[in-house]
Each structure stands twice: as structure tokens, then as C-alpha cells.
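Work package 3, deliverable 3.1, input record:
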Amino acid sequence: MRFGVVIFPGSWSDGDCFHALKNVLGQQVQYLWHKDRELPALDCVVLPGGFSYGDYLRAGAIARFSPIMAAVERFASGGGLVMGICNGFQALCEAGLLPGALMRNVHLQFRCQWTHLRVEASNSPFTRACRPGQVLRVPVSHGEGNYYLDDASADRLEANGQVLFRYCAPQGEVTPEANPNGSLRNIAGITNARGNVMGMMPHPERCCEGIMGGVDGRYLFESIIQALAGE
Amino acid sequence: MTRPSKEALAEMALTPEEYDRILDILDREPNPVELGMFSALWSEHCGYKHSKPLLRLLPSQSPRTLLRMGQENAGAVDIGDGLAVVFKIESHNHPSAIEPFHGAATGVGGIVRDILAMGARPIALLNSLRFGPLDNPRNRHLLNGVVSGISWYGNCIGVPDVGGEIAFSGSYSGNPLVNALCVGLVEKEKLASSSVGSEGNLLLLVGSDTGRDGIHGASTLASRAFESGAEMRPTVQVGNPFMEKMLIEACLEAARDGGLVGIQDLGAAGLTSSTVEAAHRGDGGFRIDLSKVPRREDSMDPYEVMLSESQERMLLIVRPEARDRIAAVMEKWDLPCSELGRVEGGGRARVFNGREPVADLPVEALASPTLYRLKGSMSRDVRKARRFPLSRLPLPGDSPAGVLLRLLKSPNVASKEWVHRQYDSQVQTNTVLPPGAADAALLRIKGTSKGIALSTDGNGRLCYLDPYVGGIIAVAEACRNLSCVGAMPIALTDCLNFGSPERPEVYHQLERCVRGIARASRALKVPVVSGNVSLYNETGGRAILPTPVIGALGLTEDVSKRSPAGFRNEGDLVVLIGASAVEGNPGSMAGSEYLEVCHDLLAGRPAIDLDMEVRVQALCRRAIAHDLISSAHDCSDGGLAVALAEAAILGGLGFNGDFNHNGRWDAALFGEAQSRVIASLPPRRLPRLQSMAQEVGAPLTVLGRVEGEEFRAGGFINLPLSRLDDAWRGGFEEALTGGTP
């Protein structure tokens, strides 16, 4: 499949996503520059983690105005798969492609740690390789990952099956202790209503090889590859 | 200009004799800009005037070294496969004492640019930090500020922070130590120089605008003692990590262009030191026009522009025909880029502001401060502390189990996860052994089977009691940490944190310590390829404990052969490598954590047998390479009992051992005899380990087994693992939130 990884000024997971997709999963990957106005022919766009534009103002707030984001919006409205990881999730929320906002972590500290994620919906193109309720082990690394949405909208999100992942304990219980940042209802990853745009704070690209301490990140990328292959 | 008063010269960290030398060199009075340039470049921070004669004692070469210390911005070693690793440690102690957040943040930024100036991609950061005790709110404020500053800057630039250490002692109250180490990776043939090359090359300034921040940081802040009450904030710089990230990407892209001759960072003394150092390396001169420097404030005068320490700026030296290509790369990354001037023959530093000449000085003299070789002598307090009869020390009131819990809770020993989790340790996806999991951090090198290991170490208490032996131990322990994960030590970088060298007792510490480092470096066959000196670490007339921090780099040919610190398998045997028995020798308590925590005492004479050290490390590496052992952890702060407890906690598995020992129980359990490693292994592999130990000549003692959920050490300690776990994991945060002193 053909993946594109956007480079914003300040992105730092671009290389990690590229490596995971190309060298671990054997996919075609190319970088996309934030000043470009058109996308080449692609099957999936990845917005990587980092501090785009220094995250000055608000995380992801300036990235949404970069020229490539208009092209990404068009790609998404045509049904293309878009995956936002960490800062990419923040930019997708700022751009209005995903509902809600990511606020500063409730404890006001940056957190880099392994988390457990319970798969809440396994019919999405981003999770179809997972079992419902499966627990994935994936690290987070962010200072602003505290997902927020008003209650009524959050209820709709849940009813539509747009919540993909929740932070949980190793056995799958959703507890306050398992929540690394104070996210509403332990939400770690969501999709848009159509299901083709996804955002998550944890970093699946960091856990695709055993030597990195875990391989659960592959489930996400393999889901996308399966979905694109129409399997 | 009339001759400045002695006091005015002292403000500039110049002596009257040095001023006379300037008059001799110029055969006229210097103007204020010129004097400022001399003051900055002849400061201890830039010119190493007290330390250079001592630094020459350090062995700096091995078959792997590509550059010698001082030759470039950082040392470089060949790791094979056409790759070189570049690394260096640097202090930002004084700025962090004044403004901990930005002081620490810009410390990270500065060392990253040193690595970038070698054309290398920064791939890892480590920090070695020292603070006063956490029961003092000021020290808590400093710790919080420093950790937040490192987290803010390091996380934003996408370089993983993979380790380091944090320790506490009263002597660092008011004068914390903030040492940052950066590691870079570069194809060997792409190693960049920071020399100006030939005449006619152009000097481009890229990155941030120049402001009034940090003027005279080198001479005022870093090169003399200061009083904490004095308002010094204007001499501290403010960082912009986003600009740094742009600089990293843009400079690495520009470095692929053959027309880029040299890269030099602007650090201490800003434009002055970067231009003069680059010219000096290239045996050339230069001419620059300050009116071309983009400024934050229009009213800045040439003096301020030449000495500003505004962060995130680099000097690029390019061939004229490459100028437009390099400028286009900078534009791609939205980085301001201005052509300041060009390289000239004649060895002069010629500075203009428009057409007006501002300074005209000989490069050679600017780069050659007067070097001082002072006379040191041991202080009376140290003599007394060394003579203290440890054999007559009363046993503590606490039980052995009570002592163990106290030590595990002590902020020096307790888990530093509260700190590590605020740093991104995984970005770039190379971190195989993350902070806290093993004695050293381990990174894979993508595209090869290799890994590099990194560790920092330095014990102020031991260096206070015996700076020579303390220097040896700092090197031995940093290298031992590498050997415990299975890596061969291949290079060292050192940061020498001391008080004022103008005091005989401090100069004595500095000299003996450097000699100790040199001795250990030769014995372990690992050269010192880069380093930094931070003197004048004093407040209220009291020097810090002498604290050399050694950063060590190790190489493993097969990164899949590695060892964590924690136990891994129920039923494994636990052995002590490096001793044929558990000894309760009172001398081993010298300078130990146990003496400080339980007796409030700093006394005794540390000792180490370097031959034994070499053998112990060789055995560790061989045992790991042959997949014999499941875990390895060195005995350090808190001695044998703490090392065993940590291995049990990290592995989530209990320990059961007999613990026959000679002598005092406190020395046996908590003494800090050197060259000892705790390893665990499946019982069937013991005979092979024993024969390997015999071949290498390192003694071995079986201590017990990995077993159950309790920690049992003979008749002395019998505690549920959960109690140890709570003490070790909770101790740091408890101290930080003011729970216990």
C-alpha cells in the first residue's frame, strides 16, 4: 500500500513512522512536505507526532493552517484513510476533522510511559486486525493528551462506535489509575463519524519490533493494510 | 581607553597581569569591544586557563578515535560499518542555579549544537544532576525547574533522553550541577569540521536573531564564584527548542552539500568564540560586519552583538559557489540566514559595524590564554575525615531490614521514575534498554546488528575523601555499567565540576582527580575524547564536593545479547562477581550512602583494585556474549544488599540467600567495596560461568536464588518484596513532596 507521512516543521515521529511502515511492514512510504498543496496518489496519510511549529499557541493549532492540511482535508472527504498520532491527533482536532480537543495533561507534566489500551471497536479500518476488548500495550509520550469533549457529544461518539481505544489496566479494566493524562472517559483514540479519519495519542510506530519492547503497534498498521486490500 | 581598575578587571575575570599581556600583544590599549573579546575567550569557561595543563594528562587516543579532545567541538569514535559516534558532556551549572528552567533547557540546547557542529544527528541525551537535600524548598524548586526545563527542551527537539543520574548532598545546596551529555551518529566520511578552511570562504549566521540575553555568561557566570543573592538573571539565556529542531534538520541537510566547509555552534561568548575558534582551527583570519547580524533590538551596540549568548544560532562556513544552495536549504526550513563576512589570510579577527572598524585582534593570541599551573594541598578537614576509625563506629540502632528500607527510600538510591517519565526516552525508536531498566542505556544502530551503551557516573563523596581514587572509581563505575549490559567501553567524556581552583585545596582535588581519571582510562584502555570543565562552583565561600562526571560510551557487536538489571527467572542462581566471599570489612563503608544516611558521616578512605576491575568487567561482557546470565547489576550506592534488592524489585521476583559473611554486618550488607556485580543465571549454566571466571581471573560467590515474593538475606533481612518496592518506588516522590527529609 502507498503511505504518505507528513513532515511539519517540528515533527519528530515522521522518521519513526516511515521506518515502521517501510522497513518493518514492507509498505511503500513517502514523505509529504507541509508546504505542498497537493497529495500524490496515496492510500493512507499519516500525521506524525512532534511539536509542529513548536506547539506555540496550542498543540497542533498552527499545523492546521499549513498548506498540506487543505489537501489532507480533501483526501479525507474523498474517503481516504488519515491517521493522526499524538501531535497529528492534536492537529486533526484543531482542523475540525475530529471532534474534541486535547488539553494539558491533568497533572501538568509530560509523560513518556507504556500504557494499555482496550480496543473498543474492532470494525474500524484502523482496528480490524484486533479482537473486541483486546488489550494492546502501546507507549504514550506527550504533555497535552488530555482528551476533552462535552458530555452530550461524547455520548454520541460512544453510541456511533467512534471511540477506538481506552486507557486501561493490563487486564482491561478501565480505571482512573490507568489514565495517564486525565482524558475524558479514558479515551485514547477516536475516529470521525465516517470512520476514515483516526486520531490517537499513543505511539503505535514505537512498538512494531520486539527489540523495542513490544509489537502491538503492528495491529493498527496491519488493520489499515487489510482494510485497504479489502480483506 | 584608560586602564580599567583592578575591580573592573575582576568583573571581567581578568587579572592585572593578563591585562598587561594584552597591552604587550597589541602595543596599544584595547577598546571596550576588544577587551570584552579577550575577557570572554581568556575566561576559564572558554580558555580553560586553569585546567588545560591538567587536561593534557588525559589519554585521548585509541585505534577507534577519529578526533582528539579539543580538536573539534566533540570527540568522535569509529564504531565500524562506516559509522562514527560523536559525544560530549557539558555543564550548565551556574545558569541553572539562577534560572533552573531555562538554565537547564539551554544546557541541553548547547550540547546538542556541539554535536550538530560535527555534522552528526543527535540520537540521545543523558543528564547528570546534583542538588542539595530535598527538605529545603529552594532545592525542590531547583530540581523541579531543572527537570521541567530538560523535559521541555529535549522532548520538543525529538532526541530521546535515555538516562544519567541524580544525586543529593548538602554541598550542592545553592549550586546544583546540571551536566548534559549528547550523542550523535554520522557516517564517518561526513564528519564535519568547524574550521574556516581557505581564504574567501563565506561566514553565514543562521538561526535565531541576536538579543541582549546572556551577555558575558562565559566570564561572569561560569568563571568565578557568585553569591546567590546577586541579581544575575540577565546573564542567563532563554531557549527556543523549536528553532533548535529546525537548525538540526536544516544543518544536516546543508551538510550533505560538499560546499559546506565547516559548522560551528554559537555557545559561550557567542559570535566572538565561534568565529575566533573556527579561524584558529583553520589557521586563518576573518572579517565580519556586525550590521549584518539580525538583532532583536535595534539599539544593540557592537559589544553586545559580539558577546551575546542568544541561543539557537550556528555559523556555517561555505564556499562562495555554494552560498545560494545553502541559503535555499535555510529558506526551506524558514531559518533566517545572513552573510556576515569572509575568511581572510593574515590571522586577524577583524570586526566592523558597517564601515566602522570595531575590533582588530590577532586570532592566535585570543585563542591562547595564559595557562596557570597552581599548587594544591589537601585540606585539614579531609585529612581528618580520612583518618576516622570506621572499625570503631557503633552499629546502628536500626535492624538490618530497617537500614535497608531507609536506604531504598533515600533519594540517592530510590527510583527516579518520577524524572524519567517526564522525558521522551523512545523517540527515534532505537532505545532498547530504557532509563532505569539496566545499569546503562542501550541503543540499537539501525541497519546494523550493533548497539551502543551509555552511562554517566561520578561520586562527590568518594572524590572528597580521595580525589585520585574517586577519579579512578568514577571511570571504573561508568565503564562497569556498560559492561553490565554487555557493551565494551570505547570512549569517555568528562565534566569536571569543582570549586575555585584558586584555592589550594580545590586545585589539589582537581589535579589528583584528573590523574585518577587518566590512570583508570589507561587501565581500562578507554580514551577521553571530549570534555568540559566547570570551576567556581561555590556559594557562601564553600566549594561543592569535587564531582567529576564521567560519561562512558560502549559498543556491542550484537545488540540482541544484552542484560537488564532485574532478575528474570524464578529459580535462577544469584552470584556475586568480583569477590570470593561476602566481606564485612569496615573500610568498605568509606564515603558510603549507609554512612551518610544512618550515621550522618562522611569519612574513611575509598579503595579500588583496578586489575580486579578489568577482570570483573571482562567476565560480565563474556558471560553476556555467551548468553550465560539472565541479569547483571553492579554494587554501587547502598552496597550489596541494595543491589540485590533493586534486582529483585526491578524483576518483580524475590531473593533467598544465606549470606555467610566475615566481619561487621553493616559493612557486609551496605559497604561499597568496588568491582562487584550481582548476576543471576539458570543453575545449569553455573559450571560454565565458573570456568569462565577462572580463565578471566575474577572470583565468584554464589549468594542464593531468585525465589518467591520475599527478600531473605540470611538471618538478617526477611521482608516481603512489596515493602521494598514501596520504599524504592515511593522514596523520591515522598522526599520531593516534603514527606520526609
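The CA atoms of residues 121 and 161 of chain A lie 6 Å apart.
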